[in-house]
Amino acid sequence: MRAPRLWLWASLAAPCVAVHAPWHLGNGFELTVNERANFLSIAHRGRSIWETLPGQPFLSASAGGDEVIAANGNFKINEVDQNKCTGQEIRDVAVRSWQGSSNDHAALIQGQLTGCGDATHFSVAFWVPSQFPDRIAFSVKVDPGSSSDAATKLFLAYRSSPSEDFYGLGAQGSFASFKNQTVPIFSREQGVGRGDQPTTRLESQDSFFAGGDHFTTYTAIPQYISSKSRVFHLTQESSAYTSFDFTDPNAVTVRYDGLTLDGYFMQAENMLNGISMLTDYTGKMVALPEWVDTGAVLAIQGGQSKVNRIVKQGLKLGCPIGAVWLQDWSGTHSQSVSYMSLNVSRLWWNWESDTTLYPTWKEFVQSLRDLHNVRTLAYINPFLANVSTKPDGYRTNLYEEASKGRYMIQNSTTNSTSVISSGPGLDAGILDLTNTAGRSWFKEVLLDQVWSANISGFMTDFGEYTPIYSDTQFSNRSIDPFFYHNAYPREWAALHQWIGENVSSFSDAILFHRSSSMAANRHMNLYWAGDQNTNWGVNDGIKAAVTVIGHMGLSGYAHGHMEIGGYTTTWDSNGVVNRSSELLGRWGELAAVSSVVFRTHEGNVPEVNAQFYTNSTTYSWFGYNTRLFASLAKYRRRILETESKKLGWPLLRMPVIYHPEDEVAKAISYQSFYLGSDLYVAPVLDPGRTSVKVYFPGKNQTFTHVWSGKKYHAGQTARVSAPYGKPAVFVVGTPNNSDLDDFLQFVSQENNTLIHF
């Protein structure tokens, strides 16, 4: 670190006017400060990696509390900024001792924010962290001020460029790049429709904000990776509501609902390297067991006889089956929906087996394994429902036990459990993960009543409902609900890894999550893209599933999959929009060439949706798609064991990752993607189509269509044949490995197969 050289007036009442020579932060990083222009610049070995906008404040603050309205897990947030500071004065630049710095020091910049009543003090520290010497860590602190209209939130602004595009930020389903958008970071129900009409409007008319919008999501993560290979993320401790404003072509502004903000920024060599740098902090995802590679995970509800019948039928038809997912293992009940004449199938959140559907649960699970080598997956979430009205009874009412022990999040006004509604007749409490006794109690429940049946994992649902009311109370009274809300999904995932330490077969299990948060990936081995609608929609249908997995990959989540066929049955003026056989089949093709796990879902109204087991025709197409998935097992496994495990790279990769200078590739969300580096895929995502328009990105590259052998060239756009059963897949260049042999053999054997439905 350069010896301090400070240009200070005798009184801090007037601003400084000096320009500082570079401050050496360590490992080749240098900070330059121009106090007159309020300008900061950080370079690494002479290359600028981060800078503010000259002549403009890089920090601001505002008063007022954001307005949050919530119902049934739907949170609508209106940002409120009162008395926002309009000016900034740098008063001091100094070297300070700093724990965790590579050279034990940090550069500390202090000053005043002005134009907002009383001047408000701020400080910004920059240092090279000893644990991650390839990046800059920062810490921003703003004093609330002494006026009655005290600051409550801060803004950090820095330079971008018109050609820089932004990706990641969690499970985002509506846009390729977030340039020109403002992205809120808050985990919540994603809504039904999310902008697809008329679904969104009808849902929100029926229930508050139930349709959501383009940015409502189960998983919002405060990070991005840009097309310039710049990486920015907050720490897991900075978990308050945040928004990233990319609407200024020359700047990024991070608005944070708190007065202390910590994070990192870095310049990667390329976007894949950026993912590696991000996951050096967050951690890599936990390894997936190999049994998921070669068979389908069949979602079935209805009890032991139905499950046995469908499994036997599938095996007879030559469908590889890895597991059955029996989400109704704890029992079901019907939930009326005002806008449909049908009832929605919901689950009893009381984590014991249902004696009507599965009277010999443990023995049944073992028999599937012994007779057919088929594993069983269950379902768990952090809710505990009051089952006192369960028609066929129960052995233990976990809600009552947890209420007596105060193991669930409390309401300080009623001095009782904070009750969450998930629709008519489904009221529950949420496990308080700050309650040590409650965690231990829940651990014993799962070990005794869930894991004891020799299952191979479960859907680890929800995590985004944590209330943020003023009377929300945790066992740890120091917890602020507004800050803890975004952290809960990570703690929920970590809880299961802790419980898994007592399960001998845990490394052979899959636990799949839809809700996540910063650094939760280190506690997960699988996520899914959330609850899409059973349609062809852009924002919340089959297309959105691709976009979500693409952005999650750029958020550090390498192991993604989708629910084949979607989940949510919607309606329009013509009635119920059910899942067609064509949609189910095309979604199966998509999952086969995009996902790490091949899993179905019956949907929330199974009886109106085409199912893989509806008839021999649907099962035949599904079996074909499963074999297509299995043919890629060696290729996927090589990627998972090397690039994903060691580097954090995702299986599904948005085209921009390899072509950040290609303007067309930068705008591709769902139309095409890379599967690893050797395959390029352009799925059919519209009904009635037997061909697809494909853009081939980059320069000086060839793409060979696997079904026809025809070669296409980078920069070319072409219409490619894609009849049912033959998704448009291309080999990129001339890969020199044998991992694709099984896939290419499948293509050769099935090239004359005709799919009928």
From TrEMBL:
InterPro entries, per this entry? Answer: Gal_mutarotase_sf_dom, GH, Glyco_hydro_31_C, Glyco_hydro_31_TIM, Glyco_hydro_b, Sulfoquinovosidase_GH31
Signal peptide extent:
1-18
Limits of the Glycosyl hydrolase family 31 C-terminal domain: 648-731
Q: Which residues form the Glycoside hydrolase family 31 TIM barrel domain?
A: 304-606
Domain of life of the organism encoding this protein: Eukaryota
- Indicate whether Glycosyltransferase appears among the record's keywords: no
Gene Ontology MF, one: hydrolase activity, hydrolyzing O-glycosyl compounds
A single Gene Ontology biological process assigned to it is:
carbohydrate metabolic process
Keywords from UniProt, A to Z, are:
Glycosidase, Hydrolase, Signal
Q: Write one Pfam family the protein is assigned to.
A: Glyco_hydro_31_2nd
Family (UniProt): Belongs to the glycosyl hydrolase 31 family.
PANTHER family reported in the protein's UniProt record: SULFOQUINOVOSIDASE (PTHR46959:SF2)
Would you tell me the protein name for this molecule? Alpha-glucosidase
List the source organism.
Penicillium cf. viridicatum
UniProt lineage: Eukaryota, Fungi, Dikarya, Ascomycota, Pezizomycotina
